[in-house]
Amino acid sequence: MTPAGLHPRVILLLCFVPTVACNTFAFTEEPSERAGKADGHCSRILRAQRNRKESNNEFRLRVEGDPESYQPGSTYRVTLTASSPSYFRGFTLIALKEGTEGDKDEDYAGNFQIIDEEETQFMTNCPPAVTESTPRRRTSIQVFWTAPPSGSGCVVLKASIVQNRIIYFQDEGSLTKRMCEKESLYGDATDKPLLDCCACGTAKYRVTFFGNWSEKIHPKDYPRRANHWSAIIGASHSKNYVLWEYGGFASDGVKQVAELGSPVKMEEEIRQKGDDVLTVIKMKAQWPAWQPLNVRAAPSAEFSVDRTRHLMSFLTMLGPSPDWNVGLSAEDLCTKECGWAQKVVQDLIPWDAGTDSGVTYESPNKPTVPQDKIRPLTSLDHPQSPFYDPEGGAIIPVSRVMVERIARKGEQCNIVPDNVDDIVADIAQEEKEEDDTPETCIYSNWSPWSACSSATCEKGKRMRQRMLKAQLDLSVPCPHTQDFEPCMGPGCSDEDASTCMMSEWITWSPCSVSCGAGTRSRERYVKQFPDDGSVCTLPTEETENCVVNEECSPSSCLVTEWGEWDVCSATCGLGMKRRERMVKMPPADGSICGAEVLEVEKCMMPECHTIPCMLTPWSDWSDCSVTCGKGVRTRQRMLKSPVELGECTEELEQVEKCMLPECPIDCVMSEWTEWSECNKSCGKGHAIRTRMVMLEPQFGGDPCSETIQRKKCKIRKCTRGQGNSDEKKRRKEQREKRRSKQGRAEGTSEHPGCRMRPWSDWTDCTKLCGGGIQERLMTVKQRFKTAQLSSCKDRKEIRACNVHPC
Question: Where is the Spondin domain (predicted)?
Answer without folding.
Answer: 193-386
